[in-house]
Amino acid sequence: MNRVPGDAENAHSSSVESCPSLRDVHSINPVQLTARIESYEGREKKGISDVRRTFCLFVTFDLLFITLLWIIELNVKGGIETTLEKEVLQYDYSSSYFDIFLLAVFRFKVLILAYAMCRLRHWWAIAFTTAVTSAFLLAKVIISQLFSQGAFGYVLPIISFILAWIETWFLDFKVLPQEAEEENRFLIAQDASERAALLHPGALSDGQFYSPPESVAGS
Length: 219
Known about the structure:
This protein is an all-alpha fold. It has helices at residues 3-17, 19-26, 30-46, 50-76, 80-89, 98-117, 124-143, 152-199.
């Protein structure tokens, strides 16, 4: 006998629990939602997010920094022209730094093509470049005779290795998560705006109100 009132009470409590979500939707300000959606759409029109642009700048810095170190190494060894001819035209894997420079060019081209021009939202491209960089540098350090050539035998491989992994960390932990979060916020704001438009219709015009004429007294 007591089950029916209990079930009715449970149903009532569940309906009450579902009311806060409706209240939240009713409390949404359509103007704020519209402004937020327009800001997200403005970011989409720019084509590239701020954090992705920062990543591309860091990739460019990687190439320029390795190039600068390589030019300094060429100059230290007795002149740029002479050493450049020796390291490029008479390339020797065990003693040349030219391949480390080409490795930086390889990273730059692949990452800019993938994440600036194609605007990929996946980590496979940078995983490929980092894996190639790590494998090549480890093999070069083990097989070559770079450590016998002074400080640059340590500096160029180590810096190239560190920069490649910083790029991987920055993309995987900053660029992709932040862009995914902004996209989710845009979808949530767009959905909330649609609900608010349904729950907060425009103000009714005077023609939508109807007042019946006053009845004649005694009729």
